[in-house]
Amino acid sequence: MVEAGSEKQPVQVAAGEQGELFPDDSLPDELVGYRGPAACQIAGITYRQLDYWARTKLVAPSIRTAHGSGSQRLYSFKDILVLKVVKRLLDTGVSLQNIRVAVDHLRLRGVRDLARVTLFSDGTTVYECTSPEEIVDLLQGGQGVFGIAVSGAMQEISGTIHEFQAERADGGIVEQHGPDELTQRRNARKTG
Prior knowledge:
Largest sheet: 4 strands, antiparallel
Shape: globular
Oligomer: single chain
Helix content: 40-55%
Strand order of the largest sheet: 1-5-4-6
Distance between the termini: 46 Å
Order of helices and strands: EHEHHEHHHEEHEHEH
Structural class: alpha+beta
């Protein structure tokens, strides 16, 4: 169990790790991202929140930042995942100051590592657990009040991200893949 913000060695991240998570090449490399409005819809936040968090560097876009009026930020899958986690932490009453400490710690991890993380909070401190034993230890200590499984947020994003147009930072063309089976079933339920 690691308390968010405690001293820890950075995790080495392999290049192109997003592509390894998505074997269908729906996110082929680290140059592919989503504009602000799409990131908001995928993460379930308002554009005002997105803009504030980018300006205060809570969650800044890792692919392309805004450079003056009219330029578009470009958010990676990991950025959107962190946005969703921040939203969940805010919804449970964790202060922005404590969220900032947790986000700084999450930035050190690769996407694959984030899938193994569960965040717990007692409303004051955010704890990171990466194994069932750590979760049991935390709960036996009477500290954890609620938990956020990052892998759950990742699955939610993976299920909806295909509905949005991706963009390459270098201006190249991104092939639009058809919706996956789960998305097709959800859409059929909505209209049927």
